Request: fold
Amino acid sequence: TGSVGTSVASAEQDELSQRLAKLRDQI
Amino acid sequence: MAALPAQLRSIQHHLRTAQEHERRDPVVAYYCRLYAMQTGMKLDSKTPECRKFLIKLMDQLELMKKDLGDNDSISQEVVGNAHIENYALKMFLYADNEDRAGRFHKNMIKSFYTASLLLDVVSVFGELSEENIQHRKYARWKATYIHNCLKNGETPQ
Reply:
C-alpha cells in the first residue's frame, strides 16, 4: 500500500541522514 | 557514478568539480561531494531515482573518508574548512589578477566559476561570512560576464 511505500522511503531517508551524521562525526 | 536525476541538477557543477580534483586535491573532491550530498538530500531524497543516486554518492564519500582518514583536513572539519576556503581564495585571486591585468581567457573564467562553487562548499561548515558571500557573488558574475563578452567578441571592461 501507499503507507508501506512511504514508511520504506522515510526509513531509507533516515538511514541516509544517519550515515551523513556518522560521516561528519556528529553521532 | 549513475546518471544525475533531473531533480538534482543544481549539484552537477559541484560533482564535476569533485571529479576534476580527484587526483589534484582529494580533500577538495571530498568536500565538494559532501556539499552535493547535503544539498541533494534537501532537494529530493524521496523519489527512487534520487535515493539510488544519493546512496551511491554516500558509498563513495564513506570510501573516500576511509582512504583519506589520516588527512587532518578530513578528520578535523575545522582544518578542512580552512583548506577549502584557502583553495577558493587562491582561485579567486588568480582570476582577479588576470582580470586586472586585462588577460581574459577560458582558464580565468573557469577559476572565477570554480571559486564561486567552492564558496558554496564552504557552507557545509556553517553560515558563510559576509565577505565570502560577496566574493561568491562577484566571482559568479565575473565568470558569466567575461564568458559572454568573449562569446560575443567584445572586450570586457
Notes: The interface with chain A takes residues 34, 37-38, 41, 45-46, 51, 54-55, 58, 61-62, 65, 77 of chain B (CB under 8 Å).
